[in-house]
Fold this protein.
Amino acid sequence: MDKLTNNQIAWRAAQDIADGAYVNLGIGFPEKVAQFQPPGRQAIFHTENGILNFGESPAKGTEDWDVINAGKKAVTVKPGTSFFHHADSFAMVRGGHLDVAILGAYEVAENGDLANWSTGPKGVPAVGGAMDLVHGAKRVAVITDHVTKDGKPKLLQRCTLPLTGVGCVTRVYTSLAVIDIEDGRFVLREKLPSLSVEELQAVTGAELFIPGPVADLICPEV
Amino acid sequence: MDKLTNNQIAWRAAQDIADGAYVNLGIGFPEKVAQFQPPGRQAIFHTENGILNFGESPAKGTEDWDVINAGKKAVTVKPGTSFFHHADSFAMVRGGHLDVAILGAYEVAENGDLANWSTGPKGVPAVGGAMDLVHGAKRVAVITDHVTKDGKPKLLQRCTLPLTGVGCVTRVYTSLAVIDIEDGRFVLREKLPSLSVEELQAVTGAELFIPGPVADLICPEV
Amino acid sequence: MDKTLPDVARAVAGITDGMTVMIGGFGGAGSPIELIHALIDRYRATGHPTGLTVINNNAGNGHVGLAALIEAGMVAKLICSFPRSADPVVFTEMYLAGKIALELVPQGTLAERIRAGGAGIPAFYTPTSFGTDLAKGKPVEVFEGRSYVQERWLKADVALVKAELADPHGNLTYRAAARNFGPLMCMAAAETIVQARRIVPPGGIDPEHVITPGIFVQKVVEVPNPAQEEDLNLAKATYPLEV
Amino acid sequence: MDKTLPDVARAVAGITDGMTVMIGGFGGAGSPIELIHALIDRYRATGHPTGLTVINNNAGNGHVGLAALIEAGMVAKLICSFPRSADPVVFTEMYLAGKIALELVPQGTLAERIRAGGAGIPAFYTPTSFGTDLAKGKPVEVFEGRSYVQERWLKADVALVKAELADPHGNLTYRAAARNFGPLMCMAAAETIVQARRIVPPGGIDPEHVITPGIFVQKVVEVPNPAQEEDLNLAKATYPLEV
């Protein structure tokens, strides 16, 4: 089965970010979204550890370890950057000042529930800022492989893993499709042209609704 | 009847402020306390509109109207001054970071209740930061004439005017005496030497307790 | 990213009848006089906006700025902590005549309610006002043996704020104690309109010295020589200003 | 007014068994390594302090700083949001062996609970964690049609904080994103102990640029060349450092 690369999923998510939007990208895979801002648009990236409008990674060996993102990777300062403490940073998050948060997921449910912080009681739990982001940003989107490594659906009727947030996700960018969550249902908006709806449904754990046209999900090689 | 001047009451209150104490003085009469810091002691004054460690009034004509105290009077900047916004300022107040707040009073009750913001339903009510200060500072003291302009007691069994705070005052510096509030009682600590306990009791609206020695309240001409 | 506008008239053009408007300042320090006067100009020209709910620490002084806004009849309700000043005649007369409503809020609670509005905190507990008339009708809860009053957040449709420096991203600094409510109100309004003494290019404010990050600001207009309320009142000015 | 002390050993001398200790930093940025190491030195010399409850965003990385404090066996409980790092082996092993307790708190809630502790707010409501395992047992209330979780303040006996500049009053600045939890923890601890890269005379910090006003700070010690956790870990250092 064809599928998008992580870069392509990130590219697709980046196309929906408006010029001037304030954006928080979850640590890891979502950080890639910043690389694919469409020309002419400038998003302002927020990292919850206290930087607004940070820039790209510095060259190796030139890192300033006091200028890092939430994933503890070194970033850079740009004209217009600001620093602030954690309470102010999460005032930005919780107070609804971010336009978009893009996060990874273990599971997303058709009711908008998200599970992305705990795979169960084993191991060391860690939550970070995810629970704040999902109830703070005006729009919460998820980027993810459509299925788990062993091929099981990640888009489900209900999450089975511990929740990060309730009813918070409104759009999912997967390796196969772009799916909105509306009124407790998965609404298919775009899919890979090589994939039939039936094939997509077969790897999705809840019913896909198709109230309107389904666009071809076509991403450049990035 | 002998009585202390307002300057002398302020002087007496100033003697109880330790070196290095963080102090908020209410607007009006309490502001005078700052003038009488004992030599060798340096209190740090806080004004709730966002300055810590401000200095004296500037010469007339040199005022900077962005450097004012809570009474909207011009003050000055000193080495070690800091500016901050109102939420941080009242974090200092409410969070218990001030050592002393010294306020004026319409009435103080033997249970520590204070009334100093409203004389009743007539006119325009105004509260400012008084209600925050009385429940925030580690020690809340009152400076006041012992009686009203028409000779009625201001120290009462219970306040009759709308309360500023409940059980908050621990020491009262009046024009006649220094009185602590302990376990719901007025405890006389100091009185003017020219005044008998009976005379003082006659102008006090609740019983004065005298569990220990009563010192002479002697203030210089200031 | 350019949030700058060419003049104060355009900056306040979107404020409509019945809106809740936060106005920065503590007395005259931080009062965005030119934005307020632009709003009065619009009202005199068009009859709008009116019926405003204004949130400010005070209620104006003399006949300029906030006092002039009230005097013009544009304010239906004031939420403040201290509606007294050297010359409070405008508010006092309208209040006693029943022409303006007042919600009196302790100053620290006012500040915290505004911050809460900006920070997504719908309610919090404070010891302030417990046992007083200003706590009437509010839930009380005991934590660790002490009683606290539950207070709700305050939000606004618009905030009018005076800053010292601004950049096109909306990053701000303030001047001395003119900072007061500005950073909080920027957070708590759907649209924050800032008059800055100077607009500098991005990078013109050291990232360490930014007090209000641009995410909290929507519009910025340069007012190079802002009036100070105290100076206007010493000159016994009234708005519209005699010229 | 002089809050300065001559060395880190004296700065941490008052920390006793069972205390709650806030430690600034987000990962390595802002981690007060020298203060932490001074505390470990004291423990190695005297067997105290032990049984500490530590509040930090993380759980240490490698075998220096907070990780070394945990590895020394001084920490009974950790309150944090993200106990993972590039090399979390110390915490992970002790946690899985049941030798250290963990209270996991969402990061924004952690920050706000600390601020609340410093600001005299015993409880507040947040949408964060509603409907999740981390809200279990906490009161829920509906405001304006949305559900919120009640969270309590966090306070500490001591805070260990890394600053950039300090003056003898305790006024502080920070460096870039090393600011993170520092200003909040300074507010929330009965005793705040600061290591600053440089101590300047009063007036050496512009009043406009002070991030933490001195009222929130009790002790200041100069550490001119502070170690950065990332650099120590790149060098595979363990504490006590090999010399």
Notes: Chain D has a mean pLDDT of 97. Chain D touches chain A through 55 residues (CB under 8 Å). DSSP finds seven helices and eleven strands in chain D. The radius of gyration of chain D is 18 Å.
